[in-house]
Amino acid sequence: MDSIKIEGGVPLKGDITIGGAKNAALPLMTASLLTAEPLTLVNMPDLADIGTLSKLLRHHGTRVDQSAIGAGHESGDAGATGQTMTLTADRITDLTAPYDLVRRMRASVLVLGPLLARMGEAKVSLPGGCAIGSRPVDLHLKALEQLGAKIDVREGYIYASATGGLKGAKVTFPKVTVGGTENLLMAAALAKGETLLENAAREPEIGNLAECLNAMGADITGIGSGTLRIKGVASLHGARVAVIPDRIETGTYAIAGAITRGRVTLKGTRYDLLESVFTSLRQAGVEVEDTKDGIVVSARNGIRGVDVATDPFPGFPTDMQAQWMALMATADGASMITETIFENRFMHVPELARFGADVNVHGASAIVRGRKKLSGAPVMATDLRASSSLVLAGLAASGETVINRVYHLDRGYERLEQKLAACGARIERVSPG
Ligand code: EPZ
């Protein structure tokens, strides 16, 4: 199993190109199940999770053709990014998403809405628990039932059917759910009549999916708001759609610049995708400038402690909470970090403590008392974003850090070592034997 070795303490300086968003790319890929025509996605990131979902979609009968633009891993060119993927589901050959493929990645449950809408039937494994919380899919299922689906959960599988087709309805989510909104959007696109979706998630990735569905012939309005109106259509066609930049990758590298007291320029990304984090960074004393050459982040005057609480978009993203904690561990003064989305998303705390970070968890909040110095340590990655907080702490710490179980990082960060090394970080991947 690979590990990552970092010699910390180098202020990062340089440009980092941000790739396409994992959490936009995954639902866009499942949208290909809604049509027999090819769906082409550009600016696709090259990540383990994309490979996992490609495998599942192939299992359903989708043809997945991929071509790299730019150099990718082999050339070591840290600037190159983006792949093009064409998905063609002209014939759905299997309606079951098996446990073995779904358990590796929860987003696999996003095949449910499209399969049900197009084929009137689907059998999808329940994803099971994960490191950050229990993460049920009950809200996806209730919403699909409101569109007329018959749902039965047994033997670890969701059996869904809609023999006469799905029918539009008014659906109000009792809680904001990103995946639930995505599954319902895709199902409602092919339902008979109109669906009004209230308390929908407003994450930019939802906007990307809704725009893609419209490019495929769907009729969705209210994009970007919490109320989506979907007029069902009889069929959808192919399209060519660009994946939006990854806002969490953007935020992670912004913090890499700040935590090393360096200066990085983030290219190929958008300020509006991550305003909440940039606002908190400014409050902490970090300079953030949205220029025509990219977003410039520099931290020459130290970091102050700033409280944050995670919230659905446009609030502070839960996927940036662990990275923020690493930054706050190096700040002047204390800060409070509150996690409101997931019930168990402080797995990084004991690992950050190994760097000397002073963090106390009280229920859903953590008090972080900043330290002048962190020191490198061997640590263990527990989930994707927790892993990136360990990389950040390692970049800031003096001495050597070794991060084990980096397969978590490979799920969501493309060429992380190359991107950081291009800004002066002393970081390398170590493969056993
Ligand atoms: C998406 O997960 C992201 N994943 C997550 O990113 C992200 O943390 C999360 O949204 C919140 O922003 C993808 O987009 C692939 P939710 P999702 O449904 O859709 C509860 C990463 O690191 N809930 O918005 O699964 C749920 O347990 C990942 O890239 C129910 O109770 O999140 C959670 O507490 C991690 N019942 C809350 O709602 C349901 O049926 C929000 O979950 C659905 C959700």
Fold topology:
Layout: E1 3-7, E2 13-17, H1 22-31, E3 39-44, H2 48-60, E4 63-68, E5 83-88, E6 96-97, H3 99-102, H4 112-119, E7 121-125, H5 138-146, E8 150-154, E9 157-161, E10 170-172, H6 178-189, E11 194-198, H7 204-215, E12 219-221, E13 227-231, E14 239-242, H8 247-259, E15 263-267, H9 275-283, E16 287-291, E17 294-298, E18 308-309, H10 321-328, E19 334-338, H11 348-353, E20 358-362, E21 365-369, E22 378-380, H12 384-396, E23 400-404, H13 407-410, H14 416-421, E24 426-430
Parallel strand pairs: 2-15, 3-14, 6-7, 10-11, 18-19, 22-23
Antiparallel strand pairs: 1-23, 1-24, 3-5, 4-5, 7-9, 8-9, 11-13, 12-13, 15-17, 16-17, 19-21, 20-21
Helix pairs in contact: 1-2, 1-7, 4-6, 5-6, 6-7, 8-10, 8-12, 10-12
Ligand EPZ binds next to helix 1, helix 5, helix 6 and helix 12.
